[in-house]
Amino acid sequence: MPSYISKSRYGHLQDNLILKNTCENGSDFMEHEAHISYTDTNTLPEIPKDFANQAFQFQELMMMYNCAIREVRTKLEVLNDELSIRHKRNPIKHITSRIKRPLSIIQKLGRYDAPFTVESVEERLNDVAGIRVICSFIDDIYAIADMLLQQDDITLIRQKDYIQNPKPNGYRSLHLIVEIPVFFSEQKKNMRVEVQIRTIAMDFWASVDHQLKYKQDVENPEAVSAELKECADIIAQTDARMLAIKNHIYFNEPFHKSWQDKLEKLDLPLNR
Fold first, then answer.
1. 174-183 and 92-99 as β-strands: parallel, antiparallel, unpaired?
2. Taking the model in full, what pTM does it have?
3. Residue 89 contacts residue 14 (beta carbons within 8 Å)
4. Which residues, in sequence order, are CB contacts of 254 under 8 Å at separation 6+?
């Protein structure tokens, strides 16, 4: 019979394992993790003792993920600084980051039926380290992604484009899983980081949607979901029109045709 630590020791385990997160401006990027931290422990899986005994290795791994975030974040900040000089504006409005909390890691491994080991964290999870990049315009998203991926020490592992292919609920964002080498005192280690890139409007919708879905006992949830989906579509139309205005100002593109073209590419209904 395998031995387990009790669920009542989750809090103690978390205190010993968690590192401080690198996050600016009290970002909502942390809100989802905070909700998971206070999940009813009766719903959590048991943790084998050998996982708890790996506390030091786990903490060291979290430190490595934190360093990987700093490496990728620096690249994004350098690009933003350069583009602010070349094009007289900053395509990136702000950047937030976080390290996934231990309880969230444990829950996700449980959903994968993966053992609770440090090796499983590295092999099975791609989003332990996360960066969110907020841009002004849709084309900024793809420009920043392309410039980041062109760097020879960045390897693209996976890309999910929820802008061209929104989720059924209306969620839009560009998700990249990238791998970057991080140099430590005795080794070079390739670390994975999830990079989410979205516009200010997309981030507004995602933040509000995230808050509302944790509200319990909502009357007529189907109607609420439909309203949120409609709001997401309206926000996407607004993003496309704002891009058209920018292109008209900077590049003298035909105004009305430009924003219609952008909407058609996003497969959204046009306002005639």
1. unpaired
2. 0.76
3. no
4. 248
CATH number 3.30.460.10 given to 4-213: yes
The count of other CB atoms within 10 Å of the CB of residue 116 is 19
Write a three-state SS string for 14-62: HHHHCCCCCCCCCCHHHHHHHHHHCCCHHHCCCEEHHHHCCHHHHHHHH
Q: Please choose, from the candidates 154, 150, 184, 196, the residue with its C-alpha nearest in 3D space to the C-alpha of residue 67.
A: 184
Those residues with Cβ within 8 angstroms of residue 251's Cβ, 6 or more apart along the chain or in another chain: none
Structural tokens at position 96: 């937030």
Q: What is the mean predicted confidence (pLDDT) over 54-67? A: 90
Neighbouring-strand partners of residue 196 = 132, 175
What residue ranges do the domains of the chain occupy? 4-213, 221-265
In tens, the pLDDT along 95-149 reads: 999 999 988 999 999 999 988 888 999 999 999 999 999 999 999 999 999 999 9
Kind and range of the H or E run holding 182: strand 174-183
Give, as one character, the DSSP assignment of residue 8: G
Token reading at 49: 């003792």
